[in-house]
Amino acid sequence: MLYLTSWKETDLPAEMRRSWKGYPFEVLDELTDADLIRGSNRSKSVYLTESGIKEAEALLRKNKSNE
């Protein structure tokens, strides 16, 4: 869901995908521990790592093939 609700930041040197932290902190902590997302505790949003984006895209492909 973080990927589906994310947006591209264009005013930074590298392209980044950000998403609001509207999910349980336990889930966000697990994704951070797996290095799929990053962000500070003070921020209202997180950004998806390259691994996080690849994992999300793979899950979307898998879901489409199961339809």
Throw out a few tags for this protein.
67 residues, alpha+beta, 4-stranded antiparallel beta sheet, 2 helices, 37% helix, 21% strand, globular
Describe, in plain words, how this protein is organized in 3D:
The protein is an alpha+beta fold and 67 residues long. It is built from two helices and four strands. Strands 1-2-4-3 form a four-stranded antiparallel sheet. Strand 3 and strand 4 form a beta hairpin. It is globular, with a radius of gyration of 12 Å. The model has no long low-confidence stretch (mean pLDDT 90).
* DSSP E strands, number: 4
Number of helices: 2
Question: H/E element string?
Answer: EEHEEH
Name the poorly predicted regions.
none
Mind summarizing the main beta sheet? 4 strands, antiparallel
The backbone outline, from C-alpha atoms, is: globular
Rounded to an integer, what's the Rg over CA atoms?
Answer: 12 Å
β-strand percent reads: 15-25%
Output the strand order for the largest sheet: 1-2-4-3
- The end-to-end distance, rounded to whole angstroms, is 18 Å
Q: Which secondary-structure class do the elements indicate?
A: alpha+beta
The average pLDDT is 90
Query: Can you give the helix content as a percent range?
Result: 25-40%
